[in-house]
Each structure stands twice: as C-alpha cells, then as structure tokens.
C-alpha cells in the first residue's frame, strides 16, 4: 500500500476530513422531488437510516434532513424502505412491452439488460431506439451471431466465418453493448466448440474490459452436469480475457446438493486473479421452448422441419424418445417436473390422456402438433437458497415484461419473492445485503458507474417498498398476478409507479455502455484510493482521495480549477475503483452555477486513449471535459481483497 493511501485511510477510519479537504457546495432549498422520512438503503450493503432524498432532474442531489426544503412532488415514505432501483441483468422483455414493462416495473426494476442467453437483435441501436418505460441496455448475443453466420447446422466455422462473427460482436460493443452473452445450451450455438467460442469472444477482450455471460451447456456429453457447464463458462471467460458470468446459476441433474463445490468454482477462479460474476433467481424451475432442452441436439439439427421429418422415421423416433426420457429423468426431475404452459398441464397428465405413453413419446406428439412453452424443474429450495446467500451472487430474475397471460411466475414476482420469502421470512441475508445484491453488485458486474447506488450525484432510479408486506403472488397456475409491497418506483427522477400503480409515460432511456465503465467486482469492502495531478484543456486538477473499507464516504482533496463554468466546489459521495480505473461521484457547483451531479472518471492507462492517463468530467451525466494527463499523473490503488 502506498504512503498516500496509508495516510488518507488513517484519517478516513476516524471519520475526519483529510488535510486540504474538498470544498462543499451549499445544498439547494428546492427540489423537483423529495422523498421524505423513508429508511434509506444506499446499495453498499449498509443497513438503512431514516432520511429525506432530494432530486433535481434525473439526479439525487441531497440525502439527509430536508425539512426546510420544498419540492414540486413530495412523497411520504414513513415506515417504508427506499433503495436504488433494482438492476435486472438477465432480461427477456418482449420488445413490444418496452414502452409499458408492467411486470418488471411493479417488481421494482428500473434498469434491465436485454438479450441474455445469447439471443436478441444484432442491431442494438435499432432494437432500443423506441419509447422505453424503464432503462434498457443490451448484450450482443453469441447465439444470434453464430446463427447469422454459421446457421442451424452442426458443423465447424471456417476462419472467414470466425472473422465475420468477430466483426458482428465488435459492432455490438461499439454500439454500447454491456457484454457478450451466450446460451451454449441452446441451438444452434450448442454446436460451437469451446475453442470456437473463445476465438470469437477474444475480440471483446483487452480495451473493452467487459464480460461473458453464459447459460451453461448441460447434456449427455458432460454427464448432464451443470457444474461442467459452469467450468466451461469460466474457461471461456478466462481464456478470452473477459469477466466470466455464470448466469441464472443452478444445480441440476446429478449435481443437486453440490452448492459448496459450485460456489468454490468461482472463489477458486478469483484466487487465480479472475474476476467472476454470478447471478441466480429465487425459483427451482425455469422456462424455455419444449424442444430446446428436451429433444436431443442431433435431432434438432437443420431446424424444426428437419426435426419433424426425423420424428416420422420409426428407428429415429424410438431413439429420440429414449434420449428424451433420459433427459426428463436426469435433468428435469422426472415427468412431474415438466409443465406445459400452453395447455396448463403437467406431463404425467398428458402421458395418461394419450394412452399411458412415456414422457418422451408425449413430448414428441406435442411437438408434432406445434411448439410449446414449458416449465422445467431443476433443483431444490435448499440449493437455490444457498446460492442466493453467497456474497458474490447477484439476485436476478431471468424474466421480462410481456403481454402474455401464461408463462413463468418470475415475470411478475422474482424480486419481491426474494425480499419477502428469503429476506423477511427466512432471514437468509439482512436487508442491506439484499439491496446490494439487486443494485450496486449487478451494476458493477455489467459496468454501470452512475446507477446502482442511492447516493448524492447518482441517477435517481429509486424503489420504495414496504418491508412488512412485499411478496410475490404469481404462481404456475396464475403467473401474471402482480406482486405487492412495491409502493413507488422512480425512473430517471420521474415517478413511473405510484402507490403500486403504473404512471402513464415513458421515463426510461437507452443505456449505452461507456468505454470508461469496465465490468468489475464490487469493492466497497476494501480500501481504495486515487491520486491525480496535472492540466487538461486549461483545467488544473489535484486529487488525493481515499475511501476506507466500508466507510460511508471518501476523504481527502479534490481540486478542479478552470472547468467550463468555473472552479468546482465538490462533495464526493463514493469512490469506485478497479485495476487502473477510478470513478468519483458526488455533487458539485461550478462557479456561481447550480448544484449538479458530478462524476470524475480517471484512467491510469486509458486503453482507448493510447495508454495515456485520462480524465473525463461528467455533469448531470453529460461530458464537459475529457483529455489526457502527463504520464504517471494518475495512480489508483486498492488494499487486499
């Protein structure tokens, strides 16, 4: 640890400002919105404190006693919990529901990252350039890339096709994708080899500093082992130079009960220096199309028409049915674990109705009549609770807004279910930790830096909920029953949900991942510091800032003179860091201007700036200064993890 960091952390530990402390702007006396008297959870994992929240435009400007201040809109949150808006990193919203995402907005979600499991549009700009009811970003999907170039056949990609796929991934990243998603359990990318995936994924490494999230392969070739699929995800991420993310993590097939071993896969990778992400949702059954994860992969090659043709061949049909029965028994916990959504029946009922045939034969017959949606049981409550409790685990939902009246209850219940069932009733984790898992932790994983925390300077994405009543109500039989207990949701400072009801309007925005927002582990629990000196375009900076492990705010010096608008009077709220990168967010006032949200982004060796130290200054999210500093001008340091 360097001397500067040691000295600053000593003062931070005492809760005292360091020598040459930053200047603080005066708080305004009026706001657009004030949320009063709620118990505020900031997303760091800390427990809540009663405070008022003052919002101007789309930013949080003040948190504390605002009893003397006024606002155009005032919300009384007495007895309620107020948190950052929930961040859904695995969103399956139908594009037709982007403007009115009721199912997930009523869960408290304010930000969703679309195109998980490798799917979605290749043109992210076109996909998300529509009215949005909440904030949407997108992954670039490996399955879509593979299908576009290689098609639906089980064959090896040529060198030219690898290059074409890399170009599509690169275009997605340039358009602001939040990472590369894959679903290697799904066809056609199921037929890609591990080495082929790595070859394509490498284009997203290096300067992009992003993540590879994957729905793991579970198939006869790896013994129906979800852990084998997780190991493949880690291998691809590590060899491609991306943060591997084990998405909608679950233990199925022959791995039920191996939670300790599964979590060790991630912790062991971290010991090797690999930053790993994980997310899991609070259900023991998933949802997909009937054919994808029940019919053997070889029988699906060439698409649906080719599959139906194989069904008509007696020898092939018998083989398909036998292998399907094996998958049902090993992977989906027997026929009773299969629920056909479209006809609202469990598989044993169909087996009996069709003459007491096997589950495999019933599925083949159902698919001959048309494709179906299906719920598939994969594991146990004990396993899922153990995964959700792990400190590295993001709480996700694998859900999305849509207008269908049938489907998985997670589309309406995931986040309230976690809060009500696992936090309030089972006391799996405390409220502060629960909020962290749904806000700041997922935001860091995908690379967001001004969302995920409820602190001055951050975007005013806010969820207000009742800890006494929040719970899901959706079930397999009634999957669209709204949850209860989510009282209000603000998206970019605007009330999108009020008293549990949607407000007319589209208050979301298309999220574009900045080149200065790396995927990273959340490190609020370690000591960190940043120092910087020099001049950029007539602006002189002198920064010497540190934040102790778990400390409420950074301490030290931030001097920024000569900005457009005048010298900055600044109060930092949080210091975020990762290897060679730092982001300082707070509130500031330039000269005689108004108080505004300020973020300073510092790159020790900017990979998009020729390896030079660079500084970017954002005011209310808009860049007002960006440029290079002299070599060695920026030093980012972190204590032991």
From TrEMBL:
Keywords: Hydrolase, Signal. The keyword Hydrolase applies. Residues 1-23 form the signal peptide. InterPro entries: Amidohydro_3, Metal-dep_hydrolase_composite, Metal_Hydrolase. The keyword Ribonucleoprotein does not apply. It comes from the Bacteria. This is Amidohydrolase family protein. It comes from Sphingomonas colocasiae. The lineage of its organism: Bacteria, Pseudomonadati, Pseudomonadota, Alphaproteobacteria, Sphingomonadales.
């Amino acid at each position: 640890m360097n001397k500067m960091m040691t000295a600053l952390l000593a003062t931070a530990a005492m809760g005292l400002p360091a020598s040459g402390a930053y200047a603080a702007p005066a708080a305004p006396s009026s706001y657009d919105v004030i949320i009063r008297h709620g118990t505020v959870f900031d997303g760091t994992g800390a427990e809540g404190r009663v405070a008022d929240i003052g919002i101007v435009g789309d930013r949080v400007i003040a948190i504390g006693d605002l009893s003397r201040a006024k606002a155009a809109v005032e919300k009384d949150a007495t007895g309620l919990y107020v948190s950052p808006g929930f961040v859904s990193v695995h969103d399956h919203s139908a594009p037709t529901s982007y403007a009115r995402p009721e199912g997930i907005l009523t869960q408290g979600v304010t930000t969703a990252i679309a195109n998980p499991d490798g799917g979605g549009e290749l043109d992210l700009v076109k996909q998300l350039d529509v009215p949005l009811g909440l904030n949407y970003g997108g992954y670039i999907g490996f399955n879509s890339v593979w299908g576009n170039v290689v098609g639906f056949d089980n064959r090896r990609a040529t060198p030219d096709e690898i290059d074409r796929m890399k170009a599509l991934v690169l275009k997605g990243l340039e358009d602001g994708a939040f990472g590369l998603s894959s679903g290697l359990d799904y066809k056609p990318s199921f037929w890609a080899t591990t080495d082929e995936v790595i070859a394509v994924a490498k284009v997203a490494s290096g300067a992009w500093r992003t993540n590879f999230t994957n729905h793991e392969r579970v198939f006869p070739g790896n013994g129906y082992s979800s852990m084998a699929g997780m190991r493949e995800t880690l291998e691809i991420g590590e060899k491609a130079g991306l943060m591997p993310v084990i998405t909608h993590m679950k233990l199925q097939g022959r791995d039920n009960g191996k939670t300790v071993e599964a979590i060790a896969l991630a912790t062991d990778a971290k010991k090797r220096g690999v930053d790993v992400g994980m997310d899991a949702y609070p259900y023991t059954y998933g949802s997909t199309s009937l054919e994808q994860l029940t019919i053997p992969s070889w029988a699906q090659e060439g698409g649906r028409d080719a599959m139906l043709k194989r069904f008509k061949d007696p020898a092939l049909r018998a083989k398909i049915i036998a292998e399907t029965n094996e998958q049902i028994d090993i992977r989906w916990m027997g026929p009773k674990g299969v629920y056909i959504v479209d006809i609202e029946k469990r598989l044993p009922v169909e087996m009996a109705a069709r003459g007491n045939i096997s589950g495999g034969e019933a599925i083949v017959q159902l698919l001959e009549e048309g494709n179906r949606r299906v719920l598939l049981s994969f594991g146990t409550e004990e396993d899922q609770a153990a995964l959700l409790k792990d400190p590295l685990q993001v709480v996700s939902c694998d859900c999305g807004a849509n207008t269908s009246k049938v489907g998985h209850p997670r589309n309406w219940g995931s986040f309230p279910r976690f809060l009500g069932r696992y936090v309030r009733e089972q006391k799996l984790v405390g409220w502060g930790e629960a909020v962290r898992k749904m806000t700041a932790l997922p935001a860091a994983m995908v690379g967001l830096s001004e969302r995920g925390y409820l602190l001055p300077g951050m975007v005013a994405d806010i969820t207000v909920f009742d800890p006494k009543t929040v719970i899901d109500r959706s079930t397999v039989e009634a999957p669209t029953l709204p949850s209860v207990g989510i009282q209000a949701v603000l998206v970019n400072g605007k009330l999108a949900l009020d008293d549990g009801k949607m407000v007319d309007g589209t208050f979301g925005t298309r999220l574009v991942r900045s080149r200065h927002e790396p995927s990273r582990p959340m490190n609020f629990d370690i000591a960190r510091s940043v120092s910087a000196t020099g001049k950029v375009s007539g602006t002189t900076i002198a920064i010497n800032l540190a934040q102790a492990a778990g400390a409420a705010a950074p301490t030290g010096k931030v001097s920024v003179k000569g900005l457009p608008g005048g010298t900055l009077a600044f109060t930092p709220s949080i210091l975020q860091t990762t290897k060679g990168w730092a982001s300082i967010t707070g509130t500031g006032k330039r000269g005689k201007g108004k108080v505004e949200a300020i973020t300073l982004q510092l790159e020790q060796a900017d990979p998009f700036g020729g390896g030079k130290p660079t500084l970017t200054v954002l005011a209310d999210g808009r860049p007002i200064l960006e440029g290079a500093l002299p070599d060695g001008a920026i030093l980012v340091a972190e204590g032991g993890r």
